[in-house]
From TrEMBL:
<feature type="transmembrane region" description="Helical">
    <location>
        <begin position="367"/>
        <end position="386"/>
    </location>
</feature>
<dbReference type="InterPro" id="IPR052702">
    <property type="entry name" value="MscS-like_channel"/>
</dbReference>
<dbReference type="InterPro" id="IPR010920">
    <property type="entry name" value="LSM_dom_sf"/>
</dbReference>
<feature type="signal peptide">
    <location>
        <begin position="1"/>
        <end position="25"/>
    </location>
</feature>
<dbReference type="Pfam" id="PF00924">
    <property type="entry name" value="MS_channel_2nd"/>
</dbReference>
<dbReference type="GO" id="GO:0008381">
    <property type="term" value="F:mechanosensitive monoatomic ion channel activity"/>
</dbReference>
<feature type="transmembrane region" description="Helical">
    <location>
        <begin position="214"/>
        <end position="235"/>
    </location>
</feature>
<comment type="similarity">
    <text>Belongs to the MscS (TC 1.A.23) family.</text>
</comment>
<dbReference type="Pfam" id="PF21088">
    <property type="entry name" value="MS_channel_1st"/>
</dbReference>
<keyword id="KW-1003">Cell membrane</keyword>
<feature type="domain" description="DUF3772">
    <location>
        <begin position="139"/>
        <end position="200"/>
    </location>
</feature>
<feature type="domain" description="Mechanosensitive ion channel transmembrane helices 2/3">
    <location>
        <begin position="586"/>
        <end position="627"/>
    </location>
</feature>
<feature type="transmembrane region" description="Helical">
    <location>
        <begin position="436"/>
        <end position="455"/>
    </location>
</feature>
<dbReference type="InterPro" id="IPR023408">
    <property type="entry name" value="MscS_beta-dom_sf"/>
</dbReference>
<dbReference type="GO" id="GO:0005886">
    <property type="term" value="C:plasma membrane"/>
</dbReference>
<dbReference type="InterPro" id="IPR022249">
    <property type="entry name" value="DUF3772"/>
</dbReference>
<keyword id="KW-1133">Transmembrane helix</keyword>
Amino acid sequence: MRNTMKSLFLVAFMLLVPGSFSLWAADLPAPSATAEAPLPAINQSDLQALQQRLDALKQQISSANNFNQLEGPQDRVQAFMLDVDRLTTSLLPQQAQLAVQLGVLGEAPDVEAAAEQADIVAQRAALTEQKNKVDGTLKSLAALKQSAADLITQIAGIRRTLLESELTLRTLSVLNPDFWAPLVNPSGSDAQRFNYFSDQIRKTWATVWAPGEYFFTLVLMLIAWLVWTLGRRLAERGLTWVCIHRMPEGRLRRSALAFASALATIVTTALALHLLFYALTRQAPLTPMLTTFSEEFEKVVYACVLITGLSRALLATEHPSWRLPAIADEVALALKPYPRILSCTLLVLVTLVQVSNATAMSSKIVLAGRGVVAMVVMAIIVTMLLRVGKVRKALAATHDPQTSSTFAGVIFTVASISMVVSTVALLTGYVSLARFITYELVWAYIVLAGFYLLIQVVKDGCEFAFSPRYSSGKALEHLFGIGDRRLDQIAILISGISRAVLLLCAVITLFVGGIGTTLGQLTSNILAILGGAGLRKLNIVPAHLLNAVLALLIGIWLIRALRRWLDNEFLPKTDMDPGMCASLSTLFSNIGYALVILLTLSSLGVQWTNLAWIVSALSVGIGFGLQEIVKNFVSGLILLTERPVKVGDLISISGVEGDIRRINVRATEIQLSDRSIVIVPNSQLISQNLRNVTLGGSAQGVASLELMFPLDIDPEEVKELLLSTYGENENILDKPAPFVRFSHLSPDGITLTVTGYVGSPRIVGVTKSDLLFEVLKRLGAAGIALAKPASSA
């Protein structure tokens, strides 16, 4: 075992130490001179096939005549770009290998020096030829990808134009019988297209239901049905059991239960749909028309599943205690049947509309189908709003606080206004606008419900992960040496940032998506907006985020550990005073945190040459609102380096006198005699007149008493009494010696002032108190009284 460990250590050492691998490889036998680099895996015919595939997509996009017909081609263009990326990635190692081999052979000499160089010349020529082929292939792939990217931009422009034209297109009103005539009596071309579509379905079905195949088709379809029904229930019960028995009690368990319910519905439906697709296409691929229809049908199914799954998860009518939103039980029960009714209706009606789109039927058929969808969906939503409004009104009469939600009122109002506008649009002939409003209302529900669920899961997950009551929080406390309060702050900060990001994604999703939008489209659209030109100029790569987080956490941990070492071990063993030690520790922390921030930005891949706009924005912010903060920050650095005051000094500034307890970057903490703390901005300590009593370490305090005696006393006797009292006090210094001064003579009496010095200004108050007690005692023993004010005579 020990020899094995030594061998592993030796191998790791040779691989990690620069130059060791080359020394070790020098002893190995040289490879055969006839060995050739691997040939490129992509030939000219593959590139031609890719070009033909792209040309077919362009032709399909150019022949589209409505907005919905461009959704499928957009997905296929994105899949084409992914295929090109995979091929490019497969060629990059070959390109690097050929470049390394050519670098080993070196440049071709002007004149061949010896005959034995002939093999090297041949090998160099072969490698050069192979590298040129790989370079040419990569350039062709790059050109194809750029062409596809341009095509995506063109699709977006075409879709925008078609959407605007459709929304502003005015046709016959739904009250006009001629509007429904194409559905009752379709034209010959529309009937022919529908019959052609039906024939393709019959041929596909005959292929999978042929003798010897129908048994497997029946089994696969039965399995798909079982997965969709029984499998969903089993998956939901299994995830529920995991959440109840493996999740801690509290909000995390409740949000996890809701998320598990939605996840079980979506995953089992996706699995059943893929099984059904495999059952119908295992013998022969679908025709282009059926392929387009199947892609659109899959999107509609997922949209309907999201409606039902999210509604079941959020309403939780079977387990009201698991419900996340503040919805009354009566309202939840009133809403329960409508998501399923809406999803089933959309599945049937939108599928029929997709048939007309896939077969390129006339615009009259398409508009009539949109009118049917808009009217039926509006009828369902209006019925739901009326019923929910009736229930909310009944609950409001009972003064139930759950019915007074502002957000619920806003949703109810927006939905009602949308239905009114859709009704007016249908009656006035703007059928596409009415259908668009109903679709957007359904899409808004899917987005808001989905992101609400995600936000709740993230929030509760952060509270659990950073809670000191659980193992994860205890591990973080032990690893980073932080307390419960700081752990709560970190949890709130991370939760807030995560929710802000999710809310931003939700807003973007509302405007860039719609019913029928795939997850890939949403992801690419969100990344295109969030990772736009600004982030590309900063060179921020998502893969670098993990490195940046690790650099930030490790850097903060190192700074805290090094500061503890300075405060507890190194600095106490030096000859520096405590104030200097505290200043050095604070300065080290500030510099360390600045370096950690720079390291984190560097780990993100931020190029400093691209930060000019950030500096400009900061300069504007400093000019308008941050000048005081910057001034205090600079003043704090001056205090820590020049040290006109330090921790432990007794200072007096603007009527405030006390001891400096801490010098921060922005402000200084001064402790008064009553133990209260005054926060003074650092700029005041630099710009104003400041009295530092203890600067230099030799400051002395002055204990001075002013007393008035009657005119008939013996001044010399009183003088000797005062001096003896001062001389016998242990706090009064011998040098300078105490003295008595004749301050004032008036008809009221003689005023004498006795002054003595003490070792520190901090004991002046205590010393004066002791002296007064002793002076009054001795004056009373000597029979000497103090003068009384004239007003009291």
